């Protein structure tokens, strides 16, 4: 099918902007508006989401991870109606990786609809720790743009890529895990392969209001974030941080320490450090004060993806 939006060789941000502009211009989205810098809540999202139950993998898997985006509400509802375990990432990974949605016993359809909403995800969930034994065979993500070859572009913050990398690191996903995205037909565009990097999450199926597209994508999924290996390496060098904060889209992490000496020791430990063949670049130390007015020394580390 010929794409609605013509994409010339461009950057990811050019493609995002064209898709967002087109959806706004054609009035193809529901609340929240405008769609810029969001995963668009497109009209027909529930119809597209309902197609997830048509996939063979859906009938076979007991656990499904669905992103918390508004247009994926129908996919979350389909998982709950099928009495499967629904895992939803915590918004912006603030308090961990997953929440498990636990509807009331004997919940009605109306109650399940509430549980599948953003408010329901907050009210009917329990956190799942990174050390939990989770096996996810089906992952449903939102997208700003996707190609029929399975190349995906999100809203630019890197959370879907980072979530998958963290799941890979904890053994929750494998090569057989199926990744599905749900989009409007106009969001299916041509994306040059050279824009796709090793940490970018690709998809196996695209669900739209009118189609189910099997991509047969040959690019590998992200293999994981090396955060555990980095922390182990720092611990071995007696330079373990008090706190580690990831910024997936920027390929970097902040390591926080309680005093300048500890931060300096970490900088020295990071010099020349390479994990899985990837060199790490440690930037200068900076100071900041957190909400409790405790002083920390922060050390910035770049290139932390496998």
Automatic annotation (TrEMBL):
InterPro entries given in the database record: FTHF_cligase, FTHF_cligase-like_sf, NagB/RpiA_transferase-like, Nucleotide-bd_a/b_plait_sf
Record GO cellular component, one term: cytoplasm
Keyword terms: RNA-binding
Pfam family, one: 5-FTHF_cyc-lig
Superkingdom of source: Eukaryota
Gene Ontology MF annotations: RNA binding
Protein name per the record: Methenyltetrahydrofolate synthase domain-containing protein
